[in-house]
Specification:
With 424 residues, this protein is of the alpha/beta class. It is built from 15 helices and 16 strands. Helix 7 links the parallel strand 9 and strand 10.
Length: 424
């Protein structure tokens, strides 16, 4: 069981915040986190996140800071950079970006001029807001065009369409990656299309970085992808933050460093950089490979239950850590499903499905995954049971008696698999 954080000073000083944090600890311990972009960090990562490094301003990069007193911050950042380069087998890394979104935006500003074109995955087919959704401000600066799946029942990407659009639009960046897509991409085809049109190939690996790190998914760099951006949480199981990796091009690396600082950010959050270094160290441990493989096994076990119960899954199942399910057959929308499952201790998120006729806040689907429950030690048997309980709640979302029974079983499961302090 994760050791409760010592909050004695906070308890004495600010009881309202103290109670909220203790409430969140209880919520996490007693429920199951199924949001595929969330995970449980180790106690060591939590300690680094709350360390005294939060006091230090460190504008610039190791050896090239704007303020003095950097002998230890430089050490921490160098450790983080060297470890993550080893994980992903690349020559350059920036570990300062505050989030995955800021990592993407910094990369755009580094490699594009206003008005340049980016070709990325359509949001409704699994892409991300920062890949060019019209509601984002970045679309006022750059021109985003999109590709989709050829077959939403199998998840096959339409690489023919991708090539046609690339030849017509001449993007400066060909962007792979997703936030709600359950299959693996063909990086070789993406890199080949990018080279054909003179584009830089970029992979937003935020969701699957841990699967790549653990060898359970292919490394895009092995197929010629130029740049990888990612979050440091999700499957990578670190603190919240972002990173940018460059396969080998020093000129691209210099542009990205300059884009992050001073282009978009001031001083990095050194306590977060330290926590990333710790998490990267954990990802280099042999057990992390077993963890990454188990994430996929567990997701497949859940998908098998949904298939058996004839619940439609976008992409026909999963090859990674997440499942996107169309739950309209239960007579409810994604928002209602999210609320009903949250009430019984299963936290996931509503999500649009491909070409969804419903609005984003009341979409047709739900998105869930296995990174967090795998961290707790769940195997295929437990994950299959969780999927069965999910479907039971969805079918009986108005039956408080059934929901009450499910809630008790979920609490029992959570107690059997407490959140661990150590991950290796």
């Amino acid at each position: 069981m994760a050791t409760p954080q010592d909050l004695s000073f906070l308890e004495d000083q600010d009881d309202d915040v103290f109670k909220a944090i203790r409430g969140e600890e209880k919520r996490q311990e007693e429920g199951l986190e199924l949001i595929p972009s969330e995970n449980y960090v180790s106690r060591a990562v939590r300690e680094a996140t709350g360390s005294i490094l939060t006091n230090k301003y460190s504008e610039g990069y190791p050896g090239k800071r704007y303020y003095g007193g950097q002998e230890f911050t430089d050490v921490v950042e160098d450790i983080a950079r060297e470890r993550v380069k080893k994980i992903f087998n690349c020559k350059y890394a920036n570990v300062q970006t505050h989030s995955g979104a800021s990592a993407n935006i910094a990369t755009y500003f580094a490699l594009l001029e206003p008005g340049d074109t980016v070709l990325g995955m359509d949001l409704s087919h699994g892409g991300h807001l920062t890949h060019g959704h019209p509601v984002t401000y970045i679309t006022k600066i750059f021109n985003f065009v999109r590709y989709k799946m050829k077959d939403i029942e199998t998840g096959e990407i339409d690489y023919g369409e991708m090539r046609e659009v690339a030849l017509r639009e001449k993007p400066k960046i060909l962007l792979a990656g997703f936030s709600a897509y359950s299959r693996e991409l063909d990086y070789q085809k993406i890199a080949d299309i990018a080279r054909e049109v003179g584009a830089i190939s970029m992979m937003d690996a935020a969701h699957i970085a841990g699967l790549i790190a653990g060898g359970a998914h292919k490394n895009p760099f092995d197929y010629g992808i130029d740049v990888i951006t990612s979050t440091t949480h999700k499957t990578l199981r670190g603190p919240r933050g972002g990173l940018i990796l460059i396969r080998e091009d020093e000129d691209i690396a210099k542009k990205i460093d300059k884009s992050v600082f001073p282009g978009l950010q001031g001083g990095p959050l050194m306590h977060q950089v330290a926590a990333r270094a710790v998490a990267f160290g954990e990802a280099l441990e042999p057990n992390f490979k077993k963890y990454a493989q188990q994430i996929i096994k567990n997701a497949k076990a859940m998908a098998e239950v949904f298939e058996r119960e004839e619940v439609r899954m976008l992409g026909g199942g999963t090859s990674n850590h997440l499942i996107l399910a169309d739950i309209t057959s239960f007579g409810i929308n994604g928002h209602e499903a999210e609320v009903a499952l949250d009430e019984v201790g299963m936290t996931l998120n509503k999500n649009m499905i491909a070409d969804d006729p419903n609005p984003p806040m009341r979409p047709s689907g739900i998105r869930f995954g296995t990174p967090a429950i795998t961290t707790r030690g769940f195997k295929e048997k437990e994950c299959a049971r969780v999927a069965e309980l999910m479907i039971e709640v969805l079918r009986n979302h108005d039956d408080e008696s059934i929901k009450g029974k499910v809630h008790e079983e979920i609490k029992a499961l959570a107690a059997k698999f407490p959140i661990p302090d150590k991950h290796f």
